[in-house]
Specification:
The protein is α/β, with parallel strands linked by helices. Helices cover 33% and strands 30% of the residues. It is elongated, with a radius of gyration of 27 Å. The relative contact order is 0.08.
Length: 224
């Protein structure tokens, strides 16, 4: 009987702490937010991101953090965000940013572009990335580069330039031109890579591979 009462007393104390600690914490300086950490913020700058949160001066880790998460989702370039508490006074912001697929010239400066052809609000000089240089920010170029990054990362890593050619896209790979439609499939990319590898293996010179035709790769610029 005594042991049962001990268990009941322990549960009662635990419940009191569970429900009472947040209320107490909101009135205690010890739990005031003094530090904010960002996880996943690679391209955006922490300073402006922190300013975007507009944290109240007396905010504690036990306050309602839904407004903080909402403001975090409005940080330029951020698509998702969630807030984690770390006692006694730290907030951890887990964010997902739009991923750049190319560097593009915009009004005399360089900027990042995503797979939708949108110019991203990042400073390339702050977070340098090994990306191809696109001649302009267009949806077709962004879409193709996004698909290559997803389906053929090895090919993506070899691209140095991307140029819009009418409604299609020309990629410069090891000094050679690869032509694709913006909606090129994995099979299209594999076919072009296979032809390129075969030509290089045989010591054949070529300047252009056209992968815009399903099931066919057109080779141009070969030695006579």
């Amino acid at each position: 009987m005594k042991r049962r009462w001990q268990v009941v007393a322990a549960v009662a104390v635990g419940a009191a702490l569970w429900f009472g600690l947040p209320a107490l914490g909101r009135r205690t300086e010890f739990f005031r937010v003094r530090r904010v950490e960002f996880v996943g913020l690679r391209y955006g700058a922490p300073g402006p991101a922190l300013d975007s949160l507009r944290l109240p001066e007396r905010l504690t880790v036990f306050d309602d953090l839904a407004p903080v998460a909402q403001r975090a989702r409005r940080i330029p370039g951020v698509t998702t965000a969630r807030v984690e508490r770390r006692l006694p006074g730290t907030l951890v912001l887990h964010v997902t940013e739009r991923r750049p697929v190319a560097v593009v010239p915009v009004r005399g400066r360089l900027a990042y572009m995503d797979s939708a052809g949108r110019v991203l609000p990042y400073d390339p000089s702050r977070a340098a990335a090994d990306l191809p240089v696109a001649d302009s920010a267009t949806p077709g170029t962004g879409r193709l580069l996004g698909r290559v990054l997803r389906f053929a990362p090895g090919l993506f890593g070899a691209i140095t330039e991307a140029r819009a050619v009418g409604g299609d896209v020309m990629l410069i790979v090891e000094g050679r031109r690869y032509l694709f439609r913006p909606d090129a499939t994995l099979e299209d990319m594999r076919a072009v890579q296979a032809v390129a590898a075969d030509l290089v293996r045989r010591g054949e010179h070529f300047s252009e591979l056209d992968g815009r035709y399903s099931g066919t790769v057109v080779v141009r610029g070969m030695d006579a």
